[in-house]
Amino acid sequence: xxxxxxxxxxxxxxxxxxxxxxxxxxxxxxxxxxxxxxxxxxxxxxxxxxxxxxxxxxxxxxxxxxxxxxxxxxxxxxxxxxxxxxxxxxxxxxxxxxxxxxxxxxxxxxxxxxxxxxxxxxxxxxxxxxxxxxxxxxxxxxxxxxxxxxxxxxxxxxxxxxxxxxxxxxxxxxxxxxxxxxxxxxxxxxxxxxxxxxxxxxxxxxxxxxxxxxxxxxxxxxxxxxxxxxxxxxxxxxxxxxxxxxxxxxxxxxxxxxxxxxxxxxxxxxxxxxxxxxxxxxxxxxxxxxxxxxxxxxxxxxxxxxxxxxxxxxxxxxxxxxxxxxxxxxxxxxxxxxxxxxxxxxxxxxxxxxxxxxxxxxxxxxxxxxxxxxxxxxxx
Length: 380
Fold this sequence. Notes:
Blueprint (H helix, E strand, L loop, with lengths): L1 H34 L3 E3 L8 E11 L5 E15 L4 E6 L2 E3 L4 E4 L2 E2 L7 H4 L6 E9 L9 H16 L9 E4 L4 H9 L7 E3 L5 E10 L9 H4 L7 H9 L11 E4 L14 H10 L3 E3 L6 H10 L2 E5 L15 E7 L6 H8 L3 E7 L16 H11 L1
Parallel strand pairs: 1-5, 8-9, 8-11, 9-10, 12-13, 12-14, 14-15, 15-16
Antiparallel strand pairs: 2-3, 3-4, 3-11, 4-5, 4-6, 6-7
Helix pairs in contact: 3-6
């Protein structure tokens, strides 16, 4: 009887999945009839409705210098699945050079973009005027990606055009740190279009800029190519906007409130007790607004923490600030080392063996107090 019951449940589940897939295909077919099928266009030369301009004064820091460009598209269209794909469309052509498809963590060529197979299965929202898109899948919702990849696109755009001439900004989402940084730049919330809410849009004049440094592979691999110009630009724009508060100069970045299970310390109590005796204060960066984060890092003399998005704030540190980044050997990401080198910080990396989790709530770092202590003796 139990076997029969399981068989019925399994059959129902398979039927539901089949019906869901059928519904999706019918839904996609209807939108293809309405908006048309999308074809791939790799060569952007000689397109009457597209203007491509080289961005002066800025280049990617690659072995072979790479120029940046802005792209202005008349009646340009964007479709995004808010995850892996951002399709830039003109007259039902997917503009391959400037569309974005990071599938399973890898940046792929435009032939993998979802619209070529599924079309644009969302109702289109039309906007009159000029719009700049800084959307690149879901990554812009991460604080580090926002600070180090998305905001620099505004600088790149402003080399050819004026930000205050824009009517709209197409952004990954509208949360606190995004609103705070954009508002400081004079971009009000009523100009922001949330790509999570509006996944299919069209603007009379749509502007796109290249990514500052991500051209192939995974973003973790390419982070070492973070362009040096981004750091002084961020400092010049935001360094003096700090909001002072009673902050300790010995800072430990507490990631226990992170929504991610990786890069978490298992022996938290032991670590916190040790650092407390050394005079450190633990800060959960989600509890601070953007301007308090700037002050915390600008004011600090010693910063410890496990690798995470909050370390993007190292751009605001003064030279010779002591930094200890902790991360598993298996999680190779050199972006904060690069920032530290550019900012002349006293950077140390402590790599640890990954620990197999027994539960989702477990961390993956069993931090050696002795190893931390030996490094801190060089600092304090």
